[in-house]
Amino acid sequence: MPKLIYERPVLKKLNANTINKFGSYTGVQPVKEIAGVPVKALIEDYGSPVFVLSEKQVRRNYRSAYRAFSTRYPKVQFAWSYKTNYINAVCKIFHAEGSWAEVVSGFEYRKALGNGMPGNKIIFNGPAKSKEDLHLAIENDSLIHIDHFDELQQLITLGYQTKNKPRVAVRVNMDTGTYPLWDRFGFNYENGEAWTAIDKVIKSSPLQLVGLHCHIGTYVTAVSAYRTAAQKLSALALRCKNELKHMIEYLDLGGGFASTNTLKGAYLPAVDTVPNADDYAEAISNALLNAGFEKYELPMLILESGRMLIDDAGHLAGTVLANKRLGDGRRSLVVDFGVNTLFTSLWYDHQISPAGDFEPHTENMAIFGPLCMNIDMIREQINLPVMNPGDHLVVHKVGAYNMTQWMQFITTRPAVVLIDEHEQTHLIRANETLEYVETPEQLPAHLNAGI
Ligand SMILES: *Cc1c(COP(=O)(O)O)cnc(C)c1O
Description:
single chain
């Protein structure tokens, strides 16, 4: 028997990605530029981390959504959802494109006025409008969307006191076939409250009912839900016409269209699964066109889309702080942005790319933020090349809800930069400073004496 040849054992790294006949594809591509500007230069000029918005992409998103609806329905108006991203430069881009403002607080309402929106192009939503807010909105002839009976009563009272007849809409919630039901805003359709509210508004002399509104949810991936919502609002509008001889001028279908970010727990990437603007537009337009309105009396269609119009126009560029092994042997990265900055990492598995060249070897790793808290997890698991402290990375699709929901926690909030259509960068919100954060603070005299 020939002697067996001894072969030295080798340790081989296991790649998480599968090998196909073209070799192994990791899906990882470096992202060295954002909208034509090198990531390295952005971080050098504005610090790390830094939010970067592409004006070109914002305008492109708006135009394609507007086209999707206006090619199917004769009267279409968008209103920019301020809470999605209310940095003034962003709002001004939407307004320049023709979008009205959709606000949900007195703070946002005043912001819209400050951005030059005429009062009659501001839609005032939300469950918490103060008496002062309502008064201001009436003075400015804005569109006030009523959330509950107490607000309705207050508007009637205010209506008797002002010379302007408040222009209002009734917000309706309903069963659209997606659950859990979103029934905490507005008046319910199924239990008859919506009709009661409509009837009351039409019959109350100081108010002018101009519209009906719904906002059925957020990141709603079922276009059928919008079809149902459009049918139910149309049914109410037609009932107003037939029973009360009152014409509704507009139906506002709200927002809630999905962006192409992948939700945590989703099995497939969102780019392959979520409907696009054409799909939503098709469902809504068909429902309205077939609802039974005469051609000349079709109501204007208002849309308040937020995340779909801006998510992919935003990136966050940041830096690797450290690289470590967890107890179970997994690799992890510590980066300089956490859930305080990137709030949406609580809902989304954000795509993250290295901003420079990398070794072909990739490994599954966790990404943690810099906070001293266990919840500060940017990705539980992601396949990335090994990166070193000082390397930059880019988070994709962060334009919606981060620059409004970010928290000032243990540090200041980062700068926001806009890249215009000519690849010029503009600081549109400076990195906060300690002084800025401390400005509203006051020290009682007995604590101000020194220690
Ligand atoms: C938040 C909000 C929107 C925008 O929602 P998206 O899901 O971002 O499209 C629109 N209308 C109302 C009333 C809202 O509260």
